[in-house]
Amino acid sequence: MAESAEDMNKDVYSNGLIQSLSSSLEEKLDELRQLMGKAEGDPLRIVGVGAGAWGSVFSAMLQDSYGHLRDKVLIRIWRRPGRTVDRATAQQLFEVINSREDILRRLIRRCAYLKYVEARLGDRTLFADEILKDGFCLNMIDTPLCPLKVVTNLQEAVWDADIVINGLPSTETREVFEEISKYWKERVTVPVIISLAKGVEAELKPEPRILTPTQMINRATGVPMENILYLGGPNIASEIYNKEYANARICGAERWRKALAKFLRQPHFIVWDNGDLVTHEVMGGLKNVYAIGAGMVAALTNESATSKSVYFAHCTSEMIFITYLLAKDPEKLAGPLLADTYVTLLKGRNAWYGQQLAKGELSLEMGDSIKGKGMIQGVSAVKAFYELLGQSSLSVQHPEENKPVAPVELCPILRMLYRILITREFPPQAILEALRDEAMYDPKDRIEIAQTHVIYRPSLLGYQP
Fold this sequence. Notes:
Catalytic activity: sn-glycerol 3-phosphate + NAD(+) = dihydroxyacetone phosphate + NADH + H(+)
Distance between the termini: 77 Å
CATH class of the largest domain: Mainly Alpha
Domain Glycerol-3-phosphate dehydrogenase NAD-dependent C-terminal: 276-428
CATH architecture of the largest domain: Orthogonal Bundle
EC number: 1.1.1.8
Protein name: Glycerol-3-phosphate dehydrogenase [NAD(+)]
GO molecular function: glycerol-3-phosphate dehydrogenase (NAD+) activity; NAD binding
CATH superfamily of the largest domain: N-(1-d-carboxylethyl)-l-norvaline Dehydrogenase, domain 2
Mean pLDDT: 90
Low-confidence stretches: 1-18
């Protein structure tokens, strides 16, 4: 049957749109290549380090957008070898494959389907790096990605990389980048590093301060801070890959952040740029602290909207108080921090972890690296913020007792989370006791203290007063 004029116009429009998008992508890539001094015939080498959910999705998004321009860019991802896929996960993986005709056909074309049949039957052991090549992240089995170029040798992955994406948990960042630094000793050019990690450590000597993943990378490798950036936002990895509308900020030196924001931006993933790297990075770690408590409250109160709102009022007032300690202009952080907190409370792994602890389906003895979820970074963040804000050298004036106290004394939720998760003095149910304490301040009082007293401590982020 002959095509109608309307159908022909649709085809022309569709083809024209695809050509326009492809041309736009190539232009963005060319601009970044020029900025990085890449010669004709020398591809831009982008390497993801770490293959958790967000790290894998980030690499897959780049592959989807730019992978067809193989003469201009090479995208690969490193993950450790040897991690096996248990039979229950293999069975789940098989069901996911057979529920998606496009994935099934792709695996058959690549002669990769049979191994998943054998793994389901228990006749074969699959490995995490093996399934990642086919587009399956072990921490996110239900969301198939595009096939990825996977490298299990760290030196091979990073030695000539132009851009490195840090997809590691903050607790692993220092160790891996110290190893990477050994392979960069002979480098002539300095790479650009984008960190996705949302976690912090406390450094108490010679004076109390927060140490962030970008600072860990700087110390481990000697790469200057102007070449290290942080990207974060209110995002759930699987939803972003499924093209739910999302936004993020890339923070760091102007030389790189504006070009990278443009390069990373997609119709469904808007990337803004900001110069305040460390503060945004710290805020990304702070919300994970309170997300765990939110999950506990939700489980213990049978998802009571009233109880969750009471907790939200208290935890946000503590976060606001802490931002006044950390930031010179804390008001600018209110929107990004609350947005990131909101999405984490709704669907993040830290809130999920709190729920599972409260229900008794997980225990603290199982550690904070959880099968199918990856690293629960809020646990180490609770320890870091508690230890940091417990230092008497950072004292603020107590509103009623009229004496100096460590800032943590004005953060009862943080104190209780520390006693539940770190010292293990109390069970998860104790979080409700903290909320129901009649001596607890009205949340507005804590915010008022922050707004009416000069409590900013620039040294906490490594700045000189």
